[in-house]
Amino acid sequence: MLQAAALGTGLLATTYNQANTVPTSLYFLLIGGALNSVLVPQLVRARAEDPDDGAAFEQRLVTLVICVLGAGTALATWAAPEIISVYQRDTPATHDAFELTVVFARFLLPQIFFYGLFSIFGQVLNARNRFGAMMWTPVLNNLILITMFGLYVGMMTAPDKVADITGAQVRLLGIGTTTALALQALALIPYAREAGFRFRPRFDWRGTGLRKSANAARWTLLFVLANLVASTVVTRLASSADAALPHDGVGYTAYSYAQQIWMLPQSIVTVSLVTALLPRMSRAVTEHRVEDLRADLSRALRASGVIIVPAAFFFVAFGPQIAQLLFAHGAANAAATTPLGHMLQAFGLGLIPFSAQYLLLRGFYAFEDTRTPFRMALWISGINIGLAVACHLLLSPRWAVTGMAAAYTLSYAIGLLLTALQLRQRTEGLLDGRRICRTYAKLTAAATGAGSAGWLIARSCSHSLASVSWTPALSLTAGGITMLLLFLLLARLLRIGELRGLPGLG
After folding, report:
1. How far is 105 from 11, CA to CA, in rounded Å?
2. What is the first-listed, main subcellular location in coarse terms (predicted)?
């Protein structure tokens, strides 16, 4: 919210957001995908099977990760102009925006190293069933960012054009953003030591099992690359909408803000479940307890669906009100947030297949199968790219990126179906499919009825209230409370038992 108030939702904000996206993308391409999906099962296996409880494997792995990240960060920072040229064109009309994005990128690309440091120490803790530190340290990051954007808004004149931003403002945003992530990563080190990890650089990598990690990571690298290609195409096409309508909030920044809000339930619920379940599922596979893995996946899908399904319908019902309430402040006015609200609605229902597919992929990772997720990513990315290009060619700049959000939803719906069929074969039988589908059908029925009623209440409030400034908050509150109460009532009538077991997995 503060970022939107400081930079708006147009072309100026896109220069910062694009530069801030690049380190994340490159980190996952370098090693992040392997860390998050391949190495946790292997850390668990090393701790279970090695005579030293996996200590030597951990030290070699951390040394390798630090070396790869250090070299990759230095190379990326040097090649910043070439990297940015992949995401946006450098033309006479957009040269100022391109140059500003490159300057931001040089400040922000060192985040690659700190993303990796945070992940590797976090996975060392996860393998020991220590989850608390990795959960709260991002809060430290966000507190620093809140302070930074607060200073930007409170102490400086916020520019509305790319050419008006000052060197001091660029340095505040660039240094502040990277410092926040660095502190988030470094804060994990004392917790890793407390958990028993002692880091000593070890370069004796040959013949120690890291080749298996590298082979598994090869497919994960291709998985990340497929997703990165799709996101790069969407970023470039969305940026062209910003260039066509630089002050209307119809391009990449609006798309990224909508996607961040849309992913909030996934980040809070599904990612938390996966963080706790992946080591447990990996141990189940190691001990040949496939039935336990299937039970964990079924329980996680049903428990997360209690939040994910109504949240998806909430975004569809109240997208414009959410966008105006959160982002129509400071440099962003109400009109500039309307496209963002429509994008949030277009993303809406895609939250259900996106979250479910994310969970199902962890079933493959528990088997240390990274090839199948790559194949699924190819399908999803190919469909997303094809539909995004069609939106760019067939729709006006005002609606093109909203169409791309809908394309993202459709691509993951198809991807979920393909992933479920593949995992069913991998687990040698039914994936508790009837029980899962029955639960999701009930949740969808309850959320549809509740969301429709909430939308009607919010719409009537918007038409009847005279106060322009408070209308989004009041209509969203009235509609949201209506939807929540009616959803709980319908869920009880439909006997959705998972609602009672929501606090935990048993």
Report:
1. 16
2. membrane
Question: Residue 7 contacts by C-beta under 8 Å, 6 or more apart in sequence?
Answer: 13, 16, 158, 253, 331
Do the Cβ atoms of 408 and 347 come closer than 8 Å? yes
Cα separation, 189 vs 192, in Å, equals 5
Is the distance from CB of 360 to CB of 423 less than 8 angstroms? yes
Rounded CA-CA distance 174/16 in Å is: 9
pLDDT single digits (tens) 97-115: 899 999 999 999 999 999 9
Q: Is 249 helix (H, G, I), strand (E, B) or coil?
A: coil
Alpha helices per DSSP H over 128-209 = 132-155, 167-186, 189-194
Are the C-beta atoms of residues 234 and 388 closer than 8 Å to each other?
A: yes
**Considering only CA atoms, which of 409, 412, 485 is closest in space to residue 447?**
485
Strand segments (E) across 272-420: none
Total residue count of the chain as it appears in this document: 506
Q: pLDDT-based confidence at 504, cuts 50/70/90?
A: very low
Q: Is 250 helix (H, G, I), strand (E, B) or coil?
A: coil
Contact 304, 297 (CB under 8 A): no
| Rounded distance between C-alpha atoms, residue 24 and residue 16, angstroms | 13
Is residue 382 classed exposed, middle or buried when 0-12, 13-18 and 19+ CB atoms within 10 A define those classes? middle
Tokens of 152: 């930007």
Tokens 């499919």, residue?
Answer: 433
Tokens of 265: 């339930």
Whole-angstrom distance, CA of residue 293 vs CA of residue 228? 30
- Rounded CA-CA distance 236/248 in Å is 17
